[in-house]
Design goal:
This protein has 157 residues and is an alpha+beta fold. Helices cover 38% and strands 25% of the residues. The chain has a three-stranded antiparallel beta sheet. A two-stranded antiparallel sheet has the order 1-2.
């Protein structure tokens, strides 16, 4: 959950090596619960002499004794809170794939063996078409030549 290591830090315009605590506090994934996470951030803010934004989703709390605490994405799961790792435009397709896959399993449960299956190609195409429709976009149908190229390892990379 946390560890202390010697790291270079800037203090009063000078670089010095000091012990730095790296602490993981994730509100969304219940490393601590949401209420305790919010209380931690409130307490941290009350102890801070100064706060500043180092970059989007990165806040530094400078404590009165000169130490600093850097908090990412307000303690939330970074790739969701900052929408850098998995933007909603990708996640909606991922969730659609999961939902359609569950529906497929439910409908075909009696004929499926107990093993891992890839998402059926028809479901991928259904999701892609729904996404394009939602965006007001159309896609042409592949020609036989394009389909042969796309499904073959004989040409291209």
């Amino acid at each position: 959950m946390g560890r202390i290591a010697e790291r270079p830090v800037a203090l009063a315009g000078e670089v010095a090596v000091r012990p730095v605590l790296t602490l993981t506090v994730s509100v969304d994934h219940r490393v601590v619960d949401g209420v305790r996470g919010a209380e931690f951030l409130d307490t941290l803010a009350s102890l801070a002499e100064d706060t500043r934004t180092l970059r989007p989703f990165v806040e530094e709390y400078r404590l009165r004794d000169g130490r600093a605490v850097v908090v990412l994405a307000e303690g939330r799961l970074v790739n969701l809170a900052a929408a850098e790792g998995h933007p909603p435009a990708v996640m909606d397709m991922s969730f659609a794939g999961q939902a359609f896959s569950v529906e497929y399993i439910r409908k075909n449960a009696k004929t499926l063996e107990r093993r891992v299956y890839p998402v059926p190609h028809e479901l991928d195409e259904r999701i892609a078409k729904a996404k394009l429709d939602a965006m007001g976009m159309r896609i042409d149908a592949m020609t036989d030549e394009q389909r042969a190229y796309a499904t073959s390892w004989k040409q291209g990379t």
